[in-house]
Write a structure and sequence with these properties.
Length: 81
């Protein structure tokens, strides 16, 4: 039976991105609550650019993981060679 090798790392990355999205949404809700209640908050553009940076890091991590896994299968550490 054929199982695509790319399915496991992609599912992990998507799962972690969904978790981050929920946590970041809760953070924005709390930020909005405290801003409306009169707290002195000064959020800058970095807060709103964080999801883009996380997507870039997820893509980089996934691509490096795929590259290193392919190198591992090509150049295995062989004790009896």
């Amino acid at each position: 039976m054929y199982f695509p090798r790319l399915a496991v790392p992609v599912s992990i990355v998507i799962s972690q991105l969904l978790t981050f999205g929920l946590q970041f949404g809760m953070f924005l809700c709390f930020l909005l609550y405290y801003a409306l209640s009169g707290a002195a908050l000064t959020p800058n553009a970095t807060v709103f650019l964080t999801p883009l940076l996380i997507l870039l890091m997820a893509g980089l991590g996934l691509s490096l993981g795929i590259i290193f896994s392919s190198l591992t299968t090509k150049y295995r550490d062989c004790d009896s060679c």
